[in-house]
Write a structure and sequence with these properties.
Elements (H helix, E strand, L loop, with lengths): L2 E6 L6 H10 L5 E7 L10 H11 L7 E6 L3 H7 L4 E6 L2 H17 L4 E6 L9 H9 L10 H11 L1
Parallel strand pairs: 1-2, 1-4, 2-3, 4-5
The chain binds adenosine-5'-diphosphate.
Amino acid sequence: MKTGVYPGSFDPITYGHIDIVKRALKVFDKLIVLVSTNPHKKTLFSKEERIDMIRHALSGCMDHVEIETNNTLTVHRAKELGATHIVRGLRALTDFEYEFQMTHANRVLDKGIDSVFFMTDNRFSYLSSTTLKEIAQFNGDMETFAPPYVVEKIRAKYE
Ligand code: ADP
């Protein structure tokens, strides 16, 4: 069984993340969404809230998806969870630079865990959780960026 981990903050999950999960599930039997819980990184949503939104957003594919948390190095957690690959999404060249560094650092840390990248659908190439939160702050239309349940939760935060 091929298992991948998909690490990120998911603060909150967007259609961009969901697109990457769906692409990865065509390659992996199981995908573990790894929610980072770095205490030094300030998030709008708590770990529990982020997991709850991920669970709702991925309710159609939970047979092949697991959600776990991570507060250590991704390669260490990936190994612990029995995964062989780290899955990441690429939106633009700006993502590439960072991912390039991370991939090489991860290889030095553990040669046994490789990274794979999926390019986002055009529709989501400009989309990030940060953009979504900015739109929310100014009461913009969020429906094309995240599922209704997530939109509801963001609205509640800024009310
Ligand atoms: P991080 O804090 O690690 O950047 P994110 O939750 O922002 O966590 O992103 C997790 C992963 O999802 C990263 O690989 C990121 O490039 C990818 N990602 C985020 N938004 C999109 C999108 N709109 N399309 C494709 N990939 C995306």
